Amino acid sequence: MFRLDLGTARDRPGQPVTFEFRKKLPGIEQLEEAGTAVGPVEVAVTITYLEGLYWLEGTVDGRFVTDCARCLERVEIRFGTKLAEKYARGGPGADTEVMPVEGDFIDLTEKIVESVLLALPMKPLCSPDCLGLCAECGQVLNKAACDCRPDGIDPRLAELGRLLNPDKKGVE
Ligand SMILES: [Zn+2]
Ligand SMILES: [Zn+2]
After folding, report:
1. Residue 74 CA, ligand 1 centroid: distance in Å
2. Which InterPro entries has this protein been placed in (predicted)?
3. 101 alpha carbon, distance to own chain's centre
């Protein structure tokens, strides 16, 4: 759990109070079942209390280990996301962007999980010009060429062709 105690911030209005965590993220079983591992996340947030509102700002950093969408090799992808929220006792009131606080704590876990899920690219790539697999023989084309291209098109150009004509089915 990523739990923030609001007491100190409330006792010192206008002064940011810092919280730091480095730990494994709960609630990402779906990702893990899909073959994406998430390392421990580093979370650094400050909370500033001002006129009834708790202003939260911070960063979440970590890494995914997942499969390249083209060549299926394991690939490590670092991510860094930002958090910015407002909280208040009693909830939104007139300002609908304000999140409710119950008791003296904020549990940030859900927000962090949300931001990490959003940080995962739809198509993770080991490199922007990954050549992928040969559609014919399955050769990993980053490692070696194969003899399946009778038209002799350079795979990099073929990739460019796919980008320019996204409707055509590629190797992915
Ligand atoms: Zn790749
Ligand atoms: Zn081939």
Report:
1. 8
2. YceD
3. 25
